Amino acid sequence: MSLRVTRSLAIFAVVLAPGLVRADEPPALSRRERGDLAIHARAILRQHCYACHGGEKNCSTLPILEHPKLIATTNPVPFVAPTKVTGSQIVQFIEDGSMPPGDRPRLESKEIDVLKKWIAVGAPSFPVAFDDAGTLRAMLDDIATHQDDAANLRYFSFAHLVTDKGPPPDLVKADGDLKRALFRFGITTPPVPVDDSATLFRFDIRTAGWDKRDLFEKAGGIYPINTYDVLLLEYPFGVAVSGNKRLDDYFATAKLVRPIPFLRADWISQALVNAKNESSPLAADLLSLTDLSAALQKEGRPGIGEEARMPYGPKARPFGGQSSVPAALKPDARTPILPFDAWYSGDVHADPPPFSVIAELVDMKRASLKSVTTETPFQLKVTAKKKMRYVLLLVQADGTIRVQPTNKDGLFDADEIFLTPAGSASFKIASITSGAPTANEYFVLFAAEMDEPLPLATIIRSRHATNPNPKEVREPLQRFLFPQEKTKQFDPSKVVRKVIPIPVTSG
Question: Which of 36, 106, 315, 386 has most Cβ atoms within 10 angstroms of its Cβ?
Fold first, then answer.
């Protein structure tokens, strides 16, 4: 029943090298090294000791994964005495062979070395479980010590990477990936670890220039979201948390566009940097908003219509990327915060989806279309087995969004319908707004069962200037938003978002 810590232990080569430290002399380690020692020590204790000390057998009064009880000084000889390797009962028991008991496998020498080094550096703590509940507690405890800055504090977590199966994760690499992704924004002060295991990080969005809420407008007025909120709109792993007053107080202070307390740190790295180690389109959008905020600051944060000079918008970004990729969401029994507003992903629904919707482009003879030509009529065929309400959006090649009224007036009452614009027999794309010979436009269909009414989308636009050069299309960012609260009007788990690409060729 031994835990074989192989590749993951390589990062501790300098720590474990013989002769570098005496048994009771704490070595000088970084926060990452201390955190990894805590994670590795927990993994070893869980593998060799948990069955009797807290697991299925539970034949001991000492729960091995409850760190405060491990280091308690109530016993004459503490089970774990921080910084005192030879004064810790656990080391004595392991070395005299009394633990693990009976014929249970002995610890390997590398595992014993990890435990000794962990004790030598002060036995940094670890949670009972690396789960969302533990991460949330650590986050709220940290906020309690930084109340004056709470409005601008955000949190990133690696805790979900630590599992009870397999070796501990390579958090040195994960840490580096996160720092490199943020460095692309000129962020030289990285997020700060707030727990001993260094899996939860505090990030002050002011250091990135992501805190201002005057970057977007709606109908001539400010729509108060900031650059960090754009990340939240893309995040696919949000889960609603209720009944926590401390968290509710934080949400009221931070004014997040979505009630998501922390983000997976590895998701941030992947969302901002692509497989070729290049900045992603989302990262480029965030940089554009950062530049916009700096320009507004230079002008003294003017109101709508009072700007003298603003930077041009970013390059037009295809909605949903080049292909539509469903979000992989497994929220268990909890209510997911689904990214219906995401720009860089495709279909969105709970897992499993509440119902199936199939949508495709067809010509006027109702044959399937792979693409459409400008000025050529077409329709949208939608198939579902239930009566539904729906909202249809059209996203043009330059990122412009509009709510599309249709011939069915938002009601689906048959197994198969053919959608056209209200008062017209067909859709028709007059021209490609980006000026390119080919482009992708998109229908975005939101559907819910008949007794689940859908709200209208809120369409917002960044305060960027429009580039007058038609050879380089640079437009303000546009986004659509739906309310995410679970109410009688809108239950996100009962809604399906379907993205239908419209490949367009100039006629």
Answer: 36
**pLDDT value of position 63:** 84
- 8-state DSSP, 466: P
pLDDT (average), residues 269-284: 85
Instruction: For the chain, give every domain's residue range.
Output: 7-120, 132-298, 336-505
Q: What are phi and psi of 137, to 5 degrees?
A: -60, -45
User: How many CA atoms lie less than 13 Å away from 251 in the CB half-sphere?
Assistant: 16
Could you tell me which of 447, 449, 457, 461 has the C-alpha nearest to residue 484? 457
Burial class (CB in 10 A: 0-12, 13-18, 19+), 457: buried
- Among residues 301, 304, 348, 340, which one has the least CA distance to residue 324? 348
Query: What pairing do the DSSP bridges indicate for beta strands 262-264 and 153-157?
Result: parallel
Q: What is the DSSP string of 81-143?
A: -TT-STT-HHHHHHHHT-SS-TTSPPPPHHHHHHHHHHHHTT-----S--SHHHHHHHHHHHH
Kindly calculate the radius of gyration of the chain based on its CA atoms and give it in whole angstroms: 27
Q: Which of 205, 250, 201 is nearest to 225 (CA)?
A: 205
Please write down the HEC assignment for all residues of 385-432: CCCEEEEEEEECCCCCEEECCECCCCEECCCEEEECECCCCCECCCCC
Side by side, which strands form the sheet with 153-157? Answer: 192-193, 200-204, 153-157, 262-264
Q: Residue 339 gets which letter from DSSP?
A: -
What would the pLDDT profile of 339-349 be if each residue is shown by its tens digit? Answer: 999 999 889 98
pLDDT for residue 189: 86
Give the burial class of 190: count Cβ atoms within 10 A of its Cβ; 0-12 exposed, 13-18 middle, 19 or more buried. Answer: middle
Q: Distance between CA atoms of 67 and 71, rounded to whole angstroms?
A: 7
Q: For 78-92, what is each residue's pLDDT tens digit?
A: 899 999 999 999 999
Highest mean pLDDT among 20-34, 418-432, 446-460: 418-432
Bridge partners (DSSP) of residue 249 are none
3-class DSSP assignment, residue 171: helix
Report the distance separating Cα 238 and Cα 338, nearest Å: 7
Burial pattern 2-21, b for ≥16 Cβ within 10 A else e, equals ebebeebbebbeebbeeeeb
Q: The tokens 């810590």 sit on which residue? A: 5
pLDDT band at 474 (very low <50, low <70, confident <90, very high): confident
Give me the sheet containing 379-384, strands edge to edge. Answer: 357-362, 379-384, 416-419
Q: What is the pLDDT of residue 375?
A: 94
Other beta carbons within 10 Å of 302: 14
Sole residue written with tokens 């501990």? 168
Residue 321 has what pLDDT? 54
Cα(263)–Cα(154) distance, rounded to whole angstroms?
A: 8
pTM for the full model? 0.88
